[in-house]
Amino acid sequence: MYQYNLPVIDLSSLSSPNVDPTGNTVIAEQLGKAFENEGFAYLINVPLSFSHKKIFDQASQFFQLPEAEKLRLAKRTFERNNLNTYRGFFPVQTGSDNLKEGFEVGPSELLIPQGRAKGVIDLSEANVWPAESLNPGFRERSEKLHAELQQLSSVLLSLLAMALGKAPSFFDHYLEGSVSTLRYLHYPAIVPPSPQQELCCTPHTDSGILTLLHQDVTGGLEVLSPDGHWIAAPYVPGSVVVNIGDLMAQVSGGRFRATQHRVRSTPGKERYSVPFFFEPGVDCVIQSVDRDSKAFAYEEHVLSKMRGWVEFQDVEKSCGVFEQVEVLQPVMV
């Protein structure tokens, strides 16, 4: 494997109870440099109350639930009688190279603008939860983890604004009605006689703004380096991997890069990862910091991306979801 080390950024200064983003110019510069070059970095001394063990115990406990209970929470793509379309469980897609099952959680409380019509895919729908008797405390812990990662994302956004030469408050409107997603992922072990696959998640870029990833000791994450080599991004104790998505690269005016990444299978070993995808509000107006492109609503962007997501494959055949989605028109500002 070609050797290339991803940057490591220390966030210990953010642990102050009164965080002042304007005083963190060093971190802002480090983040800006990382996203201009690699598109990925490790964050250490992250201001979270959850240890890696607690996070992966939560993931493991969920995926050990009876299959019937998980399917009760499945998205309508997989269970036609279920109402949830954006939040909830998705099973392993047999016959694909994306060998993972997942469970997605949104904000615990979300204020929907009065009179706003809901589409067939409702990006702001309520969460679904396993029975408390089967997984005690899972909902409370998940809601707390989501809230802490949302708060960290808000601080990182202010630092990214600074890195782009803007005021720390430049992205504050992204936080209004934010529909960020916490995703628990489980990659089951591939054992004989099943044929071993090289990849359990194929090369892709993230579609949105910002991703915060907890990965377990199994590793397997690989990132495409600036000079075109696949490099390992192994587990670093206590760290969170951060990267930006296509939308943030666009918002940055091309200064930041969304980087291709993939997950290599580890024979005979299962893998857990827990990414948090920061998402603006569905009606949030998105435009380049240079204001040299058309503005559009976040909902338009994410719905256009869904056709390529593994948990929405064959969605039109299963329930005709996209047939009824009205794509929003660009917003002129």
**Amount of beta strand:** 15-25%
Instruction: Give the CA-CA distance, first to last residue.
Output: 47 Å
Q: Could you state the order of secondary-structure elements as H and E?
A: EHEHHEEHEEEEEEHEEEEHH
Q: Work out the number of β strands.
A: 14
Low-pLDDT runs of 5+ residues are 318-333
Question: Which strand order do you get reading across the main beta sheet?
Answer: 1-2-10-7-12-5-4-3
The number of helical runs is 7
Largest sheet: 8 strands, mixed
Radius of gyration: 19 Å
- Secondary structure class reads alpha+beta
Average pLDDT reading = 86
Approximately how much helix is present in the residues? 10-25%
Give the CA-based shape: globular
Can you tell me about this structure?
- This protein is an alpha+beta fold.
- 23% of the residues lie in helices and 19% in strands.
- The strands form 3 sheets. It has an 8-stranded mixed beta sheet with strand order 1-2-10-7-12-5-4-3. Strands 6-11-8-9 form a 4-stranded antiparallel beta sheet, with no helix packed on it. A two-stranded antiparallel ribbon has the order 13-14.
- α2 packs across α4 (138-163).
- The longest helix has 26 residues, at 138-163.
- The model is unreliable at 318-333 (pLDDT under 50).
